[in-house]
Specification:
The chain is an alpha/beta fold and about 270 residues long. The chain has one domain: UDP-N-acetylmuramoyl-L-alanine:D-glutamate ligase, CATH 3.40.1190.20. The chain is built from eleven helices and ten strands. The longest helix is centred in the last third of the chain and has 23 residues. It is globular and about 40 Å long.
């Protein structure tokens, strides 16, 4: 795809400002490895996390939440029931929800479950290249939760998945790709240290849910998802500048999520049309 520079960053700045003013309630049904980091990331950007993943209350919470995250990192049977319940309630209530298909393609149970969830109309799907290709039905060789494919390889799958589901599809990599509604952008920048911190990728799904909730235009899922990736890139670059290694980076990254300003996103130049 041909890339042309475009100054859409001002939209991202407005979304970050709206997020911090509205404090969206983001329900997270996520994996046990990243629960704490994801909650802290949401608090840092200005959202309010609620980690309600118990059957019987997951749907109740989804009906009042501003947005919902469904992350398949550790999809045990009880949590799968809660995830389906939350996604069904979110769809019925018009609550946007984000699917993070962690490990899809590498493990059969979660791959089948993720494909079933697509019928419940996620607003956005966020994953690495191997996960997105697998969710779209392509053969891939992802290793656990790690991608062995690059973003370019996942481009056609992302476009097809977006067309079939109506969801915005975000592919994370050296240059993130956001596809949806007949348009696509790439988000440049970020730090490789994100890949060395537990929750570095998974919490992006939570932040995307918060940004989608804060966006108020008809393309809220697309613009919210892109804004989340731009915020993540800016914050991770800030954190890398002061970090001594992965441990200090994790702390600095949470600080940076709180420190990045709407003006910083609005005056950035990291978004290009794909």
């Amino acid at each position: 795809m041909t890339m042309h520079a475009v100054r859409r960053d001002h939209v991202h700045g407005r979304i970050l400002e709206a997020l911090r003013e509205s404090v969206p309630l983001v329900q997270c049904l996520t994996n046990t490895v990243v629960t704490n980091f994801s909650a802290n990331a949401l608090l840092a950007v200005g959202a309010a996390p609620v980690m309600a993943d118990v059957p019987g209350e997951a749907g109740e919470c989804a009906r009042v939440a501003s947005a919902v995250l469904v992350n398949l990192g550790t999809p045990h049977e009880t949590q799968r029931r809660a995830m389906r319940e939350a996604a069904e309630a979110a769809r019925a209530a018009g609550t946007p929800w984000v699917l993070d298909p962690v490990g899809v393609g590498a493990l059969g149970l979660r791959t089948r479950f993720a494909r079933d969830l697509l019928a419940l109309e996620p607003a956005a799907i966020r994953g690495n290249a191997s996960e997105v290709r697998a969710l779209a039905g392509e053969e891939t060789s992802g290793r656990g939760v790690e991608s062995v494919d690059d973003v370019e390889a996942a481009g056609p799958a992302a476009e097809r998945l977006a067309g079939e589901t109506g969801a915005v599809v975000a592919v994370s990599g050296r240059k993130d790709l956001i596809v949806g509604a007949g348009r696509a952008v790439r988000i440049a920048g970020g730090s490789a240290l994100l890949t060395r911190v537990t929750g570095g990728g998974c919490s992006l799904g939570a932040v995307a849910a918060a940004c989608i909730a804060a966006a108020d235009d008809p393309g809220r899922a697309f613009e919210g998802t892109a804004a989340a990736h731009a915020l993540y890139a800016a914050a991770s670059e800030r954190a890398e500048d002061v970090a001594q290694g992965p441990g200090s980076f994790a702390v600095a990254f949470l600080d940076a999520l709180a420190e990045v300003t709407p003006d910083e996103l609005a005056t950035g130049d990291r978004t290009v049309v794909a």
